[in-house]
Amino acid sequence: MVTLASTLESSADRVPERTALVVGPDRYSYRELDEWVNRLAHTLARHGVGRGDRCAVMAPNCGGFIVALYAVAKLGAIFVPVNPRSAGPEVTHVLRDSGAAVLLVDPPLAEVGLAAAQESGTEVLALGPSAVVPDVLAEAEWAKETRLGTRIEESDDAAILYTSGTTGYAKGVLMDHHRLIWTGVTVPIATVGMTEGASLVHAAPLYHSGQLTMMLLPGTLLGATHVVLPGFDAATVLDTMERERTTIFFGVPTMYRLMVAEQARRPRELSAWSRGLFGAAPMSPEDAARMQATFSGVRLFSGYGLTETGPSGFFATPEEVAARPDVTGYRGYPLMTVRVVDPEGVDVGPGGVGEVLLGGETAMKGYWQNPEATAQTMADGWVRTGDVVRVDLDGGMTIVDRLKDMIISGGRNIYSIEIENALSTHPGVADCAAYGVPDEDFGESVVVLVTPAGEGAPTLEEIREHCSRSIADYKLPRRVEYGPVPRNPSGKILKRDLRTSLTAPRG
Predict the structure, then answer these.
(1) 46-95: per-residue pLDDT in tens?
(2) Is residue 279 helix, strand or coil?
(3) What is d(CA 162, CA 151) in angstroms, rounded to the nearest whole number?
(4) What is the DSSP track for 303-320?
(5) What is the band of 157 on the pLDDT scale with cuts at 50, 70, 90?
(6) Beta bridge partners of 410
(7) Where residue 502 falls among pLDDT bands split at 50, 70, 90?
(8) CA distances from 316 to 301, 311, 364, 389 (A)
(9) Could you tell me which residue, 454 or 499, shows the higher pLDDT?
(10) Alpha helix (H) residue ranges in 346-494
(11) Is the pLDDT at 137 greater than 80, yes or no?
């Protein structure tokens, strides 16, 4: 019986003195980490947390987050990570929706947590010294170090992972131990090549399903060393990877782009780094080429998935990334089946465009206490992703848009990613997003939001001329706006925010 708790206990028994956790100057062995987790589990039990109860954790990357995760797992309770940058109403929604009995917060977030917990009656405890709520870690220092011995089944609910909320309030994706463990086994271990005793740097948010289920959980299973950074800074990440001999890294394309630039500025010795995985957003062909030239010893995988599937889905091998970096992936991960269907549900062949459906071992149990949303997303075991894919003649699948974000102008379907890929190669563009706004004549017209790379921003005429080299004239932007591109924590563009912030085209 493999559960989140058993993976930690197995590594603590197998390699007790191996370094499990590095946070700043502090280093903890697997034996010490397991004892720390046991003490917190006993403490949470005294606060009434038991089997099936929901325990929310709102904290940035820190040791307390990891200890809390495994303490909750040892109790047979359900872990509910909360984005620490959430606004008060968003936190209130998660606490109320999940019915969390306890909220563990990073001390600076204690007041936000207290205010959000008023409606739900959730008890708030701090993961460190706090002037407003009790310090649960200090309390745990006096608790027992023995294991609880709670019987937990693989089919028991383990986590509620709230989606990024690109279409309103986030929904809670319910995952059991089996699904979480198998995401780690099939993606980073079986496909990418995470190995026994790996060294992992956690720079992406641990509360997000990508870093949590594809790095932290399988890493513990393999007795990996978890090096926790509070956030992403390219220089700090590379310095840490050099010092800790990091073997595998997961990040979004923006991270890799900044790491390439930083490595060019001051090279580090990174010979231990052998595997890289990127996802959540597409990587431009130019960025992929720079990545492979700068870090030539790294086998770079492209992955696609969503929280509702673990996030498992489909992927491209390093050879495929090198040959066609524009393609999102070619085949499903082990135990994951991929379909691309038209609006009538008929499978699309090579050369066609359709919605991605995913089915397999890591697909969610459903949305937490939301059968209506579950029925809309899941049908006959398939998860409807809402993502539109183009299927190439060689079997390559490329995400071109969200169904709800597809631009229909003059009766023609326009996929925003094609415009974004074309525009991202402009030297004056640091970031960009394409989306549609209402148009009296064409139904919708294309607008691009551009984050300039320097002092001078490219004009609409310059943008149209540049993009015309790679996309058809009817796809060219009719309007340009300037400013930062709104993205959710996983790097995806918030098209909803763009559409609601602007009205119909001017002039």
Answers:
(1) 999 999 999 999 999 999 999 999 999 999 999 999 999 888 888 999 99
(2) coil
(3) 26
(4) EEE-GGGTT-EEEE-HHH
(5) very high
(6) none
(7) low
(8) 6, 15, 23, 15
(9) 454
(10) 371-377, 416-424, 460-467
(11) yes
> Does the structure show a pLDDT above 70 at 220?
yes
| Cα–Cα nearest to 67, from 27, 100, 33, 103 | 33
**Considering just the CA atoms, what is the radius of gyration of the chain in Å?**
23
All residues at 6 or more sequence positions from 112 whose CB lies less than 8 Å from its CB, including other chains: 58, 88, 91, 105
Position 188: which residue type?
Answer: P
Which is nearest to 368 in space by CA: 166, 156, 102, 97?
Answer: 97
Q: What does the pLDDT read at residue 505? A: 42
Question: For tokens 């700068």, what's the residue?
Answer: 294
Which residues are paired to 176 by β-bridges?
A: 157
Burial group, residue 349, by CB count within 10 angstroms (0-12, 13-18, 19+): exposed
How far apart, in whole angstroms, are the C-alpha atoms of residue 232 and residue 246?
A: 15
Give the integer Cα–Cα distance in Å for 81 and 163: 11
Report for 6-20, 249-263, 378-392: range of highest mean pLDDT: 6-20
Q: Which amino acid is at 430?
A: A
DSSP per residue over 324-368, as a string? -TT--BSEEPTTEEEEEE-TTSPBP-TT-EEEEEEEETTS-SEET
220 CB contacts (<8 Å, ≥6 apart)?
A: 7, 8, 11, 20, 70, 226
| Strand residue runs (E) in 51-122 | 54-58, 78-82, 102-105
483/449 Cα distance (integer angstroms) = 7
What one-letter code names the amino acid at 158?
A: A
Composition of the chain by helix, strand, coil, percent to 5: 35, 25, 40
Structure tokens at 412: 């023609």
Question: What pLDDT is recorded for position 507?
Answer: 37
Of 46, 47, 50, 91, nearest to 72 by C-alpha is 50
For residue 51, which of 150, 145, 149 has the smallest C-alpha distance?
150
Q: What is the DSSP string of 32-49?
A: HHHHHHHHHHHHHHHTT-
Q: How far apart are CA 303 and CA 334, in angstroms?
A: 13
